[in-house]
Amino acid sequence: MLNTMVWGGDRLTLLDQTKLPAVTEYIDCFDHLRVKEAIARLEVRGAPAIGAAAAFAMVLGAKHSQHEPFLSQLEEIAADLESARPTAVNLAWGCRTIIDTAKKFYEEGLRGSLLLKKLEEKAVAIYEEDIAANKKMGEHGAALLPKEAVVLTHCNAGALATCGWGTALGVVRSAYLQGKIKMVYSDETRPLLQGARLTAYELAEEGIPVTCITDGMAAWTMKEKKVDCVIVGADRIAANGDTANKIGTFNLALAARALHIPFYVAAPASTFDLHLADGSAIPIEERAPEEIKKFAGHIIAPEKALVYNPAFDVTPAALITAIITEKGVIRPPYAQNISRLLKNKA
Ligand code: MRU
């Protein structure tokens, strides 16, 4: 399994996911601005990976701004990082967690290298806890799958989208270790092909059976190949269970409902945004028209045509069979069951 990121004390080294699977290359980020750029360019992507990268970026930012007023400088760095991508709530969560840690120890009188050490320890804990959460999620999710399971997934919610193991693909990995996976159908995930480039790569590298399909083939594949369930990740889950994830997820949920196939979302507690009552206020990132009009550098649409390029959609909670978290599996009614489960300690 490739490492998404490695913390080196003075730098955050990121695997450049825009170049996979053809080229394995790493980027050394010595300041928070380079991490912000990496997040915006999708060199690091996937909600939990973005959250952890942002936490390390805050530490780099703190190292470079040790003069007073320290806490307000951290606030500025966080605001800057959070502007890189709007939809995944983990980005703000990673920044806020470091700020809360800084406030706590600052108020206790810690300054300089002692304070920085606390921030660094917190960022490392975020990284390690993400892997542990994914493994727990994997166990909870694997229990939902039948023997010889045929699964369909979208985008990449694997080790590459997290600090390791993965959310939706973490469930697949755990189920595979239990001998339960017959086949995983991986949507290519237009326009940036995270499914074809990253999910198929991750699974194939580990010998997990994977078949690539284009996004438009998903409903037909579900029907013809007798898919047992759809499992996807999430970028932000509102208090009522409405879920933002990679564009195309909503289509899958509609098809799954029509075909009576369970539709599962796998996500850690850090992906829930309980400030939002429902999905209507989730900010949806819109990306450059070139991502649609060009394919592998070639122009594939007329210059005069307009482009609509939302990077995410919101699947209504009513279409979601269950949400798999590290704390357990949440089923409807989501409004009460989400808040009840998230209050429990893991
Ligand atoms: O644009 P991306 O590649 O960052 O989108 C990623 C997704 O939509 C994932 O499904 C989501 O972040 C969950 S990753 C565990």
How would you describe this protein?
- The mean pLDDT is 97.
- Helix content is 41%, strand content 17%.
- It contains eleven helices and 16 strands.
- The chain has a seven-stranded mixed beta sheet, sandwiched between helices. A four-stranded mixed beta sheet has the order 11-8-9-14, with helices on one face.
- The protein is an alpha/beta fold and 346 residues long.
- It has two domains: 5-135, translation initiation factor eif-2b, domain 1 (Four Helix Bundle (Hemerythrin (Met), subunit A)); 138-343, Translation initiation factor eif-2b, domain 2 (Rossmann fold, 3-Layer(aba) Sandwich).
- The chain is globular and about 65 Å long.
* Series of H and E elements: EEEHHHHHEHEHEHEEEHEEHEEEEEH
- Principal-axes shape call: globular
Largest sheet: 7 strands, mixed
Helix content: 40-55%
Total separate domains: 2
Task: Sum up the structure in keywords.
single chain, 346 residues, alpha/beta, Four Helix Bundle (Hemerythrin (Met), subunit A), Rossmann fold, 2 domains, four-stranded mixed β-sheet, 11 helices, 17% strand, binds 5-S-methyl-1-O-phosphono-5-thio-D-ribulose
